[in-house]
Design a protein that fits this description.
With 155 residues, the chain is α/β, with parallel strands linked by helices. It is built from 3 helices and 8 strands; from the N terminus they run βαββββαβββα. The strands form 2 sheets. It has a 4-stranded mixed β-sheet, covered by helices on one side.
């Protein structure tokens, strides 16, 4: 896997994170490590018993920030976090694991070229993640840039 190269100035631009409320920080960290391949890159406790953890897959400047809270807001279907994996077999492996652990919401199934091969999994607080292979989001962005910014140089 390619690991992100940070900007020389360390200033963030664009979409940087999504914050999710969780009841059990450690349980949620374990879930996102297992199902989304993320690592804890930042962790703190602002108020006793109210931890915060930032997780990243190290491929781009984006974090899932987990905030310990009793507030029960969640991403429920159709809202979700999308996580792309390297193969259909990996979608199937994670879906099988989720089925065993009682958190599989649907799939795996093929949904065509724009959606790919997908499964839906609920995290410990009921937030939905979509595990997919074959969505080709990078190529859609590259096509847009080529069409709308034809003189843009590749970095």
């Amino acid at each position: 896997e390619e690991v992100l190269e940070m900007s020389e100035h360390g200033i963030d631009r664009g979409l940087t994170h999504i914050a999710l409320t969780v009841r059990d920080l450690q349980k949620s960290i374990e879930f996102y490590t297992k199902y989304a391949g993320m690592l804890v890159v930042h962790q703190r406790e602002d108020v006793p018993g109210k931890g915060v953890a930032g997780l990243s897959d190290l491929t781009r400047s984006f974090m899932v920030t987990l905030l310990t809270s009793d507030y029960k807001d969640r991403l429920s279907w159709p809202s979700h976090l999308g996580v792309a994996v390297s193969s259909r077999e990996e979608v199937e492996r994670l879906a099988s694991l989720a089925r065993e652990e009682g958190c599989l919401q649907g799939g795996p199934e093929q949904r065509g070229p724009n959606v790919g091969y997908i499964a839906w999994v609920a995290d410990p607080d009921g937030n939905t993640i979509e595990i997919s292979h074959g969505q080709q989001i990078d190529s859609k962005i590259a096509e847009y840039l080529k069409t709308h910014f034809p003189n843009r140089s590749e970095a």
